[in-house]
Amino acid sequence: MHQQEKAQILDESGIRRSLTRVAHEIVERNKGVDDLIIVGIRRRGVPLAERLADLIQNIEGTVLKVGKLDITLYRDDLTALSDQPVVHSTDIPYDIMGKKIVLVDDVLFTGRTIRAAMDAIIDIGRPENIQLAVLIDRGHRDLPIRADYIGKNVPTSKKEVIHVNLKEVDGLDNVIIIEDNNE
Description:
Blueprint lengths: L2 E8 L1 H18 L6 E6 L3 H16 L4 E5 L8 H4 L18 E9 L3 H13 L4 E9 L11 E5 L6 E6 L1 H4 L3 E7 L3
Helix pairs in contact: 1-2
């Protein structure tokens, strides 16, 4: 598979600015943080959720509950992934009944990951609502799903891949577009 880095979309400070703006939008839209739980979708959604919770704490002075959601068993492409998919733990040790859930993921593409995440949340309990925050929205939906909070819109071709690197997972912070020349 021949892939070549095409461009850097966000550097470390760009990611920080995008998340700071999203944090302010979350507080504004929800008129504060009462009954708000931030839930990161494993893998890179989790550190993004934790960063958003820290930023919101700086704004509001309130420590938010943060959960971690594994959607492996909810994916509609589960059999295409592997005969034995690796399932990580979901860690949402809070009653979500009647709460406002902000799902957090790194890239919104087809919408299938978010559909799976909503199914997983509903299996845990019935929140008042589910909102979606993503660092990058790259378009190309297969499902009628849209983000409530977007760090950056990045129109892409289907031959391009967006890769989000985060310090907590990859050792550096940036967002790059990779050209996949095998399409």
